[in-house]
Amino acid sequence: MRPAVRFAWLFSLAAGLASAAGEGGGESSLQMWKWANFLVLAGALGYLMAKTLPPMFAARTAAITEDMVESRRIHQEADERAAEVERRLAAIETEIAALRVESREETTAEAERQTQHAAVEIARIQAQAQREISDAGKDAHMALKNYAAGLAIDLAGQKIRARMTPAMEDRLVRGFMRELK
Predict the structure, then answer these.
(1) CA 86 to CA 80: how far, in whole Å?
(2) Is residue 3's pLDDT more than 90?
(3) Total domains present in the chain
(4) Kind and range of the H or E element at 136?
(5) pLDDT of residue 120 exceeding 80
(6) Domain range holding 150?
């Protein structure tokens, strides 16, 4: 209602100026009508602006406020996500440290297993080598005995052939024949 009162006041002022100008003469009367027309137009524009701009500004203010609330909510969600990522990163660092410790333990355990396995293999290979050496020694001893026996037999054969005379051969054959009978 206040804008309507202003419009009425401006209109009455314009009408008063127009009547005063009508008494003054031609050029000044035209000037007064221009001013009155301007005042009416300005009043109408003022009325229309007073009628439409406040709701528009209120709607714009509400939209800006709503956007600010939404941006605060989005900012808060982003902060929460960032905190979650930082928490995960901290957890990852802890997990990495745990994995490193576990890896060292597994490496140590694997090295120990390899050492034990190598020791067992070395013992097995040494035992096998001992058996092979022992078997080779026995085979060499047996071959040496056989060789020595062969040499002794050859030597005895040579000695017997050297001492063998035809008379001794005849005696041996007769003795053998007697035993057969």
Answers:
(1) 10
(2) no
(3) 1
(4) helix 26-163
(5) yes
(6) 2-180
State how far the Cα of 8 lies from the Cα of 40, in Å rounded to an integer.
10
CA angle 61, 66, 71 (to 5 degrees): 125
CA 53 to chain centre: 58
CA distance readout (Å), 12 to 33, 39, 60, 133? 13, 10, 35, 139
The mean predicted confidence, pLDDT, of the chain is 85
Note the pLDDT of residue 20: 59
- Report how far residue 51's alpha carbon sits from residue 44's, in angstroms, rounded to the nearest whole number: 10
Where do we find the tokens 């001013």?
A: 35
Write the DSSP string, 11-68.
Answer: HHHHHHHHHHHHHH-HHHHHHHHHHHHHHHHHHHHHHHHHHHHHHHHHHHHHHHHHHH
Burial track 97-120 (b if 16+ CB lie within 10 A, e otherwise): eeeeeeeeeeeeeeeeeeeeeeee
Residues 6+ apart with CB under 8 A from 37: 14
As given in the structure block, the two tokens for residue 35 are 């001013």
Eight-class DSSP state of 1: -
Q: How far is CA 65 from CA 56, 59, 60, 62, 135, in A?
A: 14, 10, 8, 5, 101
pTM, two decimals, is 0.37
CA 104 to chain CA mean position, Å = 19
Could you tell me if 7 and 43 are in contact, meaning their C-beta atoms sit under 8 angstroms apart? yes
